[in-house]
Design goal:
The structure is a single chain. With 223 residues, this protein is of the alpha+beta class. It is 45% helix and 21% strand. It contains seven helices and seven strands. Strands 1, 2, 3, 4 and 7 form a five-stranded mixed sheet that branches. A two-stranded antiparallel sheet has the order 5-6. The longest helix is centred in the C-terminal third of the chain and has 27 residues.
Length: 223
């Protein structure tokens, strides 16, 4: 946002696989009239295989979406960002649908293969420089603070893929989300495993070995 010229005072972030609803749009219009807050968090509804995955996605899971320009900016964290807010924030009641596999499961796998590379690099950085905010983990004022502290803790746990599946499917209640919920939890556990493999690669394999040579690319094409 610092690299582009923004015409209006307020910004709403809407990604390609997300949709704005009329109810959320109207609430945004009302929220922008208030001088009290500089930004608002909005909860997503994850839609996977045509079904709302309500339980195993930690719903309501909030993201910074509506904010005043020059009052909120974002720092990279893995494949996503974490907002830095210069002022008080609040939460909107309406939600938005997030169609996570709107272009098919092959596209989802390809996308998360790329995401896992960024997450692996962030994992190494956090293990080296980061720490766990125990206060936010147990006494965080919002779902956002508790969720982020939980992620920082999870980076340091053994058997992360298995723990994530157990946590999502049984503790969060993904078992009640049916077949789509089971598939979602399995894929999230696989995603964690992919991150761990890439962490190992980054720690143990020289960078040049992670880059395919022209000969290897040719062999892959011929095969």
């Amino acid at each position: 946002l610092q690299e582009i010229s923004i015409k209006y005072e307020w910004v709403y972030i809407l990604e390609a696989d997300e949709r704005m609803t009329p109810e959320l749009f109207n609430e945004c219009l009302e929220a922008m009239k208030s001088p009290e807050y500089i930004g608002y968090y909005v909860a997503e509804r994850v839609i996977f295989l045509g079904q709302w995955i309500r339980r195993s996605t930690q719903y309501p899971r909030y993201q910074m979406r509506l904010f005043r320009k020059d009052k909120v900016w974002f720092d990279d964290y893995g494949h996503t960002e974490r907002e830095v807010c210069n002022g008080p924030t609040s939460f909107l009641k309406e939600t938005y649908p997030h169609y996570t596999n709107s272009k098919g499961i092959s596209r989802w796998l390809d996308k998360h293969n790329r995401y896992s590379t960024d997450e692996a690099a962030e994992t190494l950085r956090q293990l080296s420089e980061g720490s766990i905010n125990w206060k936010d983990l147990f006494f965080g004022k919002s779902e956002i603070e508790r969720r982020r502290a939980l992620k920082d803790l999870s980076l340091r746990l053994p058997f992360r893929p298995l723990i994530r599946f157990f946590y999502m499917y049984f503790l969060l209640g993904g078992i009640l989300d049916g077949r789509a919920g089971f598939s979602w939890c399995v894929l999230q556990a696989f995603y964690e495993y992919l991150i761990l493999i890439k962490v190992w690669e980054m720690k143990n394999m020289p960078p040049q070995k992670l880059i395919s040579t022209p000969e290897e690319k040719g062999e892959a094409i011929n095969n």
